[in-house]
Amino acid sequence: MNKLISGEKPSPVMVWILAARPKTLPAGIVPVLVGGVIAFAVGRFAPWPFLAALFGSVMIQVGTNFANDLFDYRKRADGDDRIGPLRVTQAGLATPRQTAIAAVVAYSLATLAGLYLFSVAGWPVLIIGLSSLACGLLYTAGPWALGYLGLGDLFVLVFFGPVALAGTYFVQTLTMTTEIVLAGIPFGMISVAILTVNNLRDIEADRRSGKKTLAVRFGRTFARYEYTLMLLGAGLMPPLLSLCGYQRTFMLVTVGFLLFAPPAIRAVFTRTEGEILNGVLAATGRLLIIYGLLFSIGWLL
User: Fold this and answer.
1) 0.90 surpassed by pTM
2) Are 273 and 197 in contact (CB under 8 A)?
3) Quick one: which of 152, 258, 280, 287 could link to 147 by a disulfide (CB 3.0–4.6 Å)?
4) Which residues contact 211 (CB under 8 A, 6 or more apart)?
5) Is residue 58 within 8 Å of residue 29, measured between CB atoms?
């Protein structure tokens, strides 16, 4: 539940760690790491652009999480009965002004990383950076917020998939191929699964607040199948790409990630308790890490 235990108040540092939503951060970290692995595999790994891409990706995601905390509070999407991870503005641990400042700081740090990458890789980075910042902010901000219109899934699929992985590869190698772009899709799919669990858990609160996520628009059953299809699709993408001649046979090792998925899928189909679904959200983040590890091993072999 989104309530503080009586007498227990997090430290200032812990407040902002909670606001950053660390269980969701693999979505912004794993595809960037894999982009670095692929660059290494072709002998073009560049440490400083890679680190800047990683830092920028994390700061954009953290800034977006801070902004979500603020704008969901302003739109009254988070009530006292919230069952998801603690929202620091709604819980009174930070004022709206403090949360806004935190979001600006995170986005500013991401911009600094982007300016360095722009000096290295040119205008494509400018386009990627500006669109990432804009979509991150507009996810919950404004009258046509992406998350409130049911467009959050598309945003996550694109920006936490091909954009993150292929963008990281590009800033190191200054080249791009269709294979690299396609390689990013399964990472976006697993990130969509993370978002789907979040939306499934919050479906009633979102419905009351007018936040029309896909789970709200089409119901629990749709969200459960969306979650499952995203994981299955991610597992089957490498074999499909291999059959199309894009990736080497060793990429088939990535299918092994599906061996770890059944407990999470079973929980999504059989449980509705918020605490259980919070655990599934964290478990899906771990599935993304496992996928990234297997994917990297397959690519390097």
Assistant:
1) yes
2) no
3) 152
4) 72, 75, 77, 147, 148, 202
5) yes
